[in-house]
Amino acid sequence: MRSLLVTVLLAAIGCTSPDLSPKAPVAKQPAPVAAQPAAAQPASVQPAAAQRLSADTPSKTAAGHTFIAPAGWSLRENGNAVILEAPEGGSWIALVDTQAKDAEAALAEAWAAYRPDAKWPLRSTTPTQNKHGWKDQRTYTYQTSPNELRSVTARTMRHGDQWTVRIYDVANAVAGKREAELALLLDQFLPKGYVRETFAGRKAHKLDAARVAELEAFITRAQQTLSVPGISIGVVQDGEVVFAGGFGVRELGKPARVDADTTYLIASNTKSLTTLMLGKLVDEGKLSWETPVTTLLPAFKLGDPDATSKVQVKHLLCACTGLPRHDLEWLLGPAGATPALALTILGRMQPTSKFGEMYQYSNPIAAAAGLVGGHVAFPKLELGAAYDQVMATRVFGPLGMTRTTLDFKVAMRDNYARPYAFDVDGKIAQVAMALNDPIRAVRPAGGAWSTVRDLLKYVQMELAKGALPGGKRYVSEAVLAARQAPQVKTGKDSWYGMGLDVDTSSGTPMVFHGGRMRGYRSNMVWLPEHGVGAVILTNADSGNVLMDAFPRKLLEVLFDGRPEADDAVVVSAKASQEWIAASRKLLTLPPDQGEVEKLASRYRSDVLGEIRVTKTGDGATFDFGTWKAPIASRKNPDGTITFIAMAPSWSPEFVASAQAGRRTLKIRDAQHEYVFTESD
């Protein structure tokens, strides 16, 4: 499966509300974060001219290790180093081969070859899974200052008796925009002569009792290693459920166990169900995939009129419109916001790449997909109510998904899994549900609750090409095929369709979609060529690695594949704890009182609302209206101060500054910056 290489910081802050009706005036557009170059270009890349690539280009390092250089990037060789620069400039990936005696010596030699003047302090060093022929992998993360707007890491890896170092020195805006190109470059970096495992042409084993027991044992080990309170899984093969059950508890300290009927927030898995609903409307003749969205929902508009006019129904969930992640505006949205908020956000959104040019995952436009479908089916209802009704009548009801719901109160009425995450000290702690409440306003993109048993019914329908148990036709094969057809590339052998990922790198297509919200991680996958599908739902952020590791384990069991899944879990758990420990050393908690005294008591953003600061004794608290969190402080290498709201699962960071004589707090995602200014 395609692994996400760029993790975008998601935020969850409550704030007071502007007018959120469809006719509300458009708020000021948040400042875009430009792809800033580093303070000075690496000396090693200045002298020689680089080759600008017109197409994705298979390439080699000095030692013959292979990679694919993305189109539009520039490539140059400098002795034992290959250096690639992003089209925007100021962002580099360096691949350096060395004959060093060990990893530390290799790292020093690589920095000398790439950027001998680099001064970033080391933040942490964590183990990385040995994979694709590389051994002894380790990742080094450097402490950049927030105002540098970039991330810097290095990875050491060994093949035979030679070390290679991969240096990642990339502006956050570039990382957010060019996620798929980075995946192409980094995921395809393979040792000389290495042949990737393939299951092409192989027949899957029957999942008998012994093989199912192997999957169960894997989950049992992973649960303990990752400290996940509850995990529910289900597997189907040839139209039959071969396993559906749970491991662990719904809530720590209480005996009730999770099972196949326990509800979890499934987050972005909702997108797949939303596009299925649109497909049903296509079959009914109420719309087509090519229908312009503005003809169906006149209130739909983007911050760019030209892009607005181009958007068809199929583009709402294709991640190909050029719209970036824009999550802060709903994650920091007001309590009780309606789906009208999604349309307001869209009216401010500007594309950062050309229409159809590259993969950029964006939740607000995915939310619009559901609102369009709901409005077409039930034009007299409020947008959110219409979406809820069309999902109930076109998806949940016909598929027999009796416990799947978009209503938080219904979902949490009985047998539901509480969310968990590690706290600042690496201990498992319950996540406040208030951090998940904002998804309600964009629920077509991620607000459904479901169970393993219900989602297996959906997966079985996909594997049956639109037929229900007994053979009754539910949806046309053409509709299902359209949802899986490539809309935009996400890697060498992977693409995004409409609310569905497809990856063929194992030699057999895997269709899937994952979901992440605070304290919940989930995935559903199926192998169309083999009649096999699976669902995994977890109630902890530490279940994140299982989104890839469980499908990998399934492949290992089905095809006697190389053992990788267990190692992925063990390494991930160790790396997580080492990262938390390293991050904790940089924090002052309670915060530096001298710096806290410089904070205003109230801040306001025209777009994101209000933050109140409460100073008590030796501590302080950020109050976001719907939730509160204690403040920690951190001094950055450039002398600036960052204040962090310390909540399990999410710790939003604010850089203290001043603007026009007033104190400010800045929060950023990869491609945007928002400023809170002190208010009376």
TrEMBL record:
Residues 216-546 form the Beta-lactamase-related domain. Residues 21-51 have a biased composition (Low complexity). SUPFAM superfamilies: beta-lactamase/transpeptidase-like. GO terms for molecular function: hydrolase activity. Keywords: Hydrolase. InterPro entries: AmpC-like, Beta-lactam-related, Beta-lactam/transpept-like. Pfam families: Beta-lactamase. Its EC number is 3.1.1.103. Residues 21-53 are annotated as: Disordered. This is Serine hydrolase domain-containing protein. It comes from Polyangium sorediatum.
